């Protein structure tokens, strides 16, 4: 889209397709605003797919007196469990009590607060537990005899981003991936926002009444590209890494392990076949934000921490896969990476006229409320905006009958009995009621087209390309699904060939396909 007299004036241009940008775009579109979201790479290609994947209040934040954040996060946990029961589900955490760990009274007070500070909660409350109880004892060293259990929730982080973008598009937003904002300035009472398509593609300029900087780890640098509009403060980049190992124990629960340095490490059942272990807190500079990698020290640290608790000793050689992300934390002046606030700060950049709103910090858990706060701040400048609405609106596929995932899974199994059991469960979680869109009237596995292994077929890939902005094998294997961990070694290559053929056909058949909107 070039800047011509015909080019539309957007109410809001959102820069960044992580959870915060996608959440703001969805909320704004549902309030009747004309929204464009631009994401330089793929949706959720950075921090929002590299998290621990918890929808949680953050028990440890109580130690830093982050009561506002914990209260809001616990309230959001309750809401998100309701609006997205397919991609978010309860997870019980066990906190063993090692010698030299935090005193029992302190943990009891913390857990009491955790149970109550967010108001009425549907998840089971915390309790003291015996670690000799076979429900919790598997895998643990015999010296660990007691602990506590409490509730939080698990989320498929990358899918939560995509579902927000899909709902934004369904409500009229334009979503453009592979498009970067390269600069912006105020002229003629509007933001003139310069865009460039990836790989040296076309440049264009669009106009907007408000610009939202949701660039995550790039939120600080993006400010330099906005014609001298500056905010005080900035962000600190804190890398966090995870390792994935063969399962350390039986059971669906997670462990939260105290380390002598005061940090905590989670072990979480992952993709039915693995244990996910994380995370670390390492201050990094801008050079590391684009492709963060786990260091040997971080791997050692995580292996050492879990080996203190589990009978099976974990060594770096046991690690099957790793990932790292960079937290874009609000710079509160602290130097201890684990203590820098995880709360978010929203800043307006201008006194009047077209606004610039920047998002610093935040959690996956609080993205919906962050979006509401962002729009409250922009409301005086965009008076046509409707009221808040996202508290009760399900994310795409989240309208499970009665909110009951187990009953929904039975329906999926009965309707498509040819699906292997693990695939039925995976697609029921990933797509919820929208699974109908691509499984539809299929009567057998062969009707789903080319089989790429691990339960991935052409029908699903076509759906992901048409409705979820998937373009590459990586988008599909690591973000729309997590099949990259379990698929055969030739899947990525076969998928890339299929996508190239598909793109060729699309170009030949429909040269005028728009880059915005759903598809
Ligand atoms: P991002 O997801 O990084 O999105 C920003 C996007 O902006 C990127 O995709 C980038 O490509 C794009 N962009 C940048 N510049 C431009 C430009 N010029 N033009 C176009 N696009 C641009 N939170 C929880 O609630 N629970 C957890 O368990 C949890 N665990 C975490 C563990 C780790 C290790 C980390 C790192 C974070 C964790 N978080 C967790 C925090 C959470 O992941 C982040 O707060 C959240 O993902 C940040 O989202 P974002 O949208 O701000 O940033």
In short:
With 519 residues, the protein is α+β, with helices and mostly antiparallel strands.
Structural commentary:
The protein is α+β, with helices and mostly antiparallel strands and 519 residues long. The protein has 3 domains: 9-47 and 159-233 and 342-381, 3-Layer(bba) Sandwich (FAD/NAD(P)-binding domain); 91-155 and 236-330, D-Amino Acid Oxidase, Chain A, domain 2; 401-509, Helicase, Ruva Protein, domain 3. It has 14 helices and 20 strands. It has helices spanning 19-30, 67-83, 104-116, 134-137, 157-170, 219-224, 296-307, 367-378, 405-415, 421-431, 436-439, 458-467, 473-480, 491-509; strands at 9-15, 35-39, 54-55, 88-96, 127-130, 146-155, 174-177, 179-187, 190-197, 203-213, 235-245, 254-258, 264-270, 274-278, 282-283, 321-330, 344-348, 355-361, 451-453, 456-457. The strands form 3 sheets. Strands 3, 4, 5, 6, 11, 12, 13, 14, 15 and 16 form a 10-stranded mixed beta sheet that branches. Strands 1, 2, 7, 8, 9, 10, 17 and 18 form an 8-stranded mixed beta sheet that branches. It is globular. It starts with 8 loop residues before the first strand and ends in a 10-residue tail after the last helix. The model is unreliable at 1-5 and 511-519 (pLDDT under 50). The site of flavin-adenine dinucleotide has 40 residues, from helix 1, strand 2, strand 8 and strand 16.
Largest sheet: 10 strands, mixed
CATH class of the largest domain: Alpha Beta
Q: Can you tell me the residue ranges where pLDDT is under 50 for at least 5 consecutive residues? A: 1-5, 511-519
Reported CATH architecture of the largest domain:
2-Layer Sandwich
Q: Total domains, how many?
A: 3
Under CATH, the topology of the largest domain is which? D-Amino Acid Oxidase, Chain A, domain 2
Q: How many helices does DSSP assign?
A: 14
Q: What is the overall shape?
A: globular
Question: Strand portion, in percent?
Answer: 15-25%
Q: How many angstroms does the end-to-end distance come to?
A: 17 Å
The bound ligands are: flavin-adenine dinucleotide
User: Pairing-aware structural class of the strands and helices?
Assistant: alpha+beta
The CATH superfamily of the largest domain is known as D-Amino Acid Oxidase, subunit A, domain 2
